[in-house]
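Problem: given the chain below (160 residues), write out its structure.
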Amino acid sequence: MEPDFSKYALEGDNSMYADESGLVVPFVTRGGLEGGATGQSAGATRVSGVSVQHTPATRLWFGKVSNEPGYRSVTHHHGEAETGGYVLSGRARIYFGEKFEDYVDMAEGDWVFVPPFMPHIECNLSRSRPLTWMTTRTPENIVVNLPDVADADLRNWLNR
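Solution.
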């Protein structure tokens, strides 16, 4: 049964989100059909569930990031984007700070906020299990890769 939209009204002008019939309705990205044309860092697979690339969204990127066992990203930041993350499965570490000497560790169910322009390195602490994050950014998935840091220069990385 089709929904009855005759009583459906929104405050403000949401016409930019209208579908081809002129209605403003939720947009669903089906599992397996997520967008892959998104900013990447070597070794991380980022898929987009909500983004400017394939939904009516204009100020939001929301997706899933997968890291193989033992993975660590290249040094990067996300430009002007505020980043929120949720560890869906696995154990994570984010290095940051001068010479990346500081880090925070996270486990399944933990949330993290990374401020704009903060250089960091994302890591999968496990040598045997994948790490999966749910991540959101505003305005979109900006990835600026920076000169890398050697594994040996990351405190407690090699002996984790």
